[in-house]
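Supplementary Note 3. Input sequence used for the single-chain structure prediction.
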Amino acid sequence: MVVSAVIVGAATVGGAVASSKGAKDASKAQINAAKDSEAIQRESALEAADIKSAAIKESGAQAQVGLDKSRDINNATVNSAADEQAKAIMDRALVLDKAAKDAQGIYANALQSGSQAQIEAANAALKQRTDAASAAANAANSARDQASAQFRASTEAVNKTIMERLATNTKMYQPYIDSGLDANAQLRDGTKAGGDFNRSFTANDFVKDPGYEFRLKQGMEGVENSAAARGGLLSGDALKAVNEYNQGFASNEYQNAYSRFNNDMNTRFTRLSSLADRGMSATGSVATLGANATNQAGANTINAARYGADNTVANGAQTAGALNAIGGYQADTSTNIGNITANRDILTGASAADLRNQQGTIEAGRVTDIANTNLTKINSLGRNDAGYATDTANLTANGTLAIGNARADGLTNANNATADAIKTIGNANSANSVAQGQIWSGALNSLGSLGSSTYMYSQMKKG
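The predicted structure, written as discrete structure tokens, is reproduced below.
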């Protein structure tokens, strides 16, 4: 009985395992089928949305091209019409401006010609009057200038004689001046530091003194002759006598040589000073002669200058009178010409002012007309651009909305497919769980009944 129960239990468990595996395989197949279906439906929905979006974009692009061309044609038409109108306004203004300028130019030329003829007549009269006044003044001035030139020539001749006499006297004094300058130069050099007149007596001067050399030679010859007469020229006594004579003679003769040196220096200085004084005296004499000659020539020149100045004053007065008269003539002529020119300028200015007023009116009308034309063009272009912007915005908005709707539909369909697949998978998993529960519940129930029967059988067999 127990063996049979084990066999039956094993068969029950094996059947439950087989049933469970079959239920799982069926659920897995159903889940895979749901996933494949969801992937296909989602891909199809998204592709459909992309195709619809591309079609919407292409349609919008074609519509935008049409809007662009329409806007460009409208704007080109407006610009062309405005340009033609502005050109016509400009041409009309140029014609009116040229006509006003031509009229003003003709009038101004007439004024210029008339005033120029008047000015030329006034200038011709002025020239005749000024020429006459200038000729009279020039004749009087010429006579006085001639007299002044003669007086100046005689003065220059006298001054020339004075200067020639001065040159002769200066030449006579020149040797004294030259010797004085030479002596003064020797004194200046001799009294400088280290000069002949500014040094002390030395032993070298002493031994070179002519008197000292002569007397020393005479004395030595006497001593030597005396020694020779005694027959002892080369004896010690003779040499001693020569030495003693030299020492005594040098001691006695030094003062004499020093005195002769100073006497010679004083004599030379005195002679050179005398020559310098004579040169300075000669220079003073020449300076006095030059001053006297210069004073005399200056006085003569001043007299001639005064005479010339008097003539110049007289000429100036004569010229001033003529210039005064000429100035009056010129003032009258200038006043006349000024009146002519002023009248011409006033009329020319009035004509120019009229021209400017006409040009201003023409220009103002041209500017106003062109401004109105530009305003009309700007308004037309603004309306075209506003309509274009509105149409473009609507086209873009509609395309964006259509593309959004297409993508929303595709996502909705794709999400629906996903939701369906998830629902199917959930149902499959739920059915599999239920089947698994039922299978294992039945198997456990069978095993429980089998165990209970086996237990009761074993108890009965023990009793």
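The radius of gyration is 77 Å. The chain has a mean pLDDT of 84.
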